[in-house]
Amino acid sequence: MADAEAICEAVTRPTMRFVPVKSADRQAVLVLHRSRDLLMRQRTMLLNALRAHLAEFGIIAPQGPRRMMGLIAELRDGSYEELPDIARSALLGIGAQLEALARQVHSLERQLLAWHRQDAASQRLETIPGVGIISATALAASIPDPSVFRSGRQFAAFLGLTPRQNSSGGKERLGRISKMGDGYLRRLLVIGATSVIRRVGTNSSATGDWVRSLLTRKPARVATVAMANKTARIVWAVLARGQTYRAPLAA
C-alpha cells in the first residue's frame, strides 16, 4: 500500500525547474529593469489622464510622448487661451511629472547601456533581430546559465510562449500560449517580434521568407507570437553556444 501511495505521489507531483541563483550584479540590472517598467507604466497613466482632460475642453492631444511634451510646452507658453487658469495649472503639474519621469527613465537606460557594453552575453543577444539593448540586458541578466534548459523549446515554454496542450478523446489539440513564467521577458520578446513583422517587407533572409509565408496563413497577431517563440529559441541557442547570431540565407 505504501509503495502504491509513493508511486501515485511521484506521478502527481509537478515537475519543478529551479532557476540558478543570479549574482548581485545581475540582480541589480533586473532592479533597473523593474524600476524602468514601473516608470513607463506611470508615464502611460499620466499621458492618458492628460489627453482625457484636454479632450474635455475640445483639445485633441497628439499621439506619442514626444508630441505630448511639445503640447505641454505650448501650454506653458500661454497657448490655448480657452483653457481656464485653474485647469492650465493642473495640466502643467501633470506635465512636470511627465518631464521628471522622462529624466528618470533616461538615467536608467544610460545605466543599462553601460552594463550592456561590458557584458558579452548581452552584446551577442543584441545581434538577434527584434532584440534591442533593453531586451538583451533583461535576458542576459535573467538567464545566467542557459544549460538549465535542454532545448530552445524548453526555454520558450519557460517564458509561456508555447501553446497549451488539450487532450480529448485521444486527440491532442493545441490552444493559446500558456503565458506561464516571466511575463516581462515574454512581453519584451513580443514587442521585438512586432517590429520584425512590421519590417518583413525589407527582410530578405530565410526568416523574412518564413514570416511572409506565415502571414499568408495566419493573422498578424498569431504570426507575432510565433515570431516571439522563434526568437526565444534563437536566444537560447546564442546563450548556450556563446556565438553571435547569423541570419540564415534565403533559398
Secondary structure: elements and pairs:
Blueprint: H1 2-12, H2 24-55, H3 65-76, H4 85-117, H5 120-125, H6 133-142, H7 152-158, E1 163-168, E2 171-177, H8 183-198, H9 206-215, H10 220-241
Antiparallel strand pairs: 1-2
Write structural notes for this entry.
With 251 residues, this protein is mainly alpha-helical. It has a two-stranded antiparallel sheet.
Structure at a glance:
The chain is mostly helical.
Distance from N terminus to C terminus (CA atoms, Å) equals 61 Å
In percent terms, what proportion of residues is strand? 5-15%
Q: Report the mean per-residue pLDDT as an integer.
A: 84
The spatial strand order of the largest sheet comes to: 1-2
**Which of globular, elongated, flat, extended, rod-shaped describes the shape?**
globular
Number of helices: 10
Rg over CA atoms? 23 Å
Number of strands: 2
Helix/strand-derived class?
mainly alpha
| Count of structural domains | 2
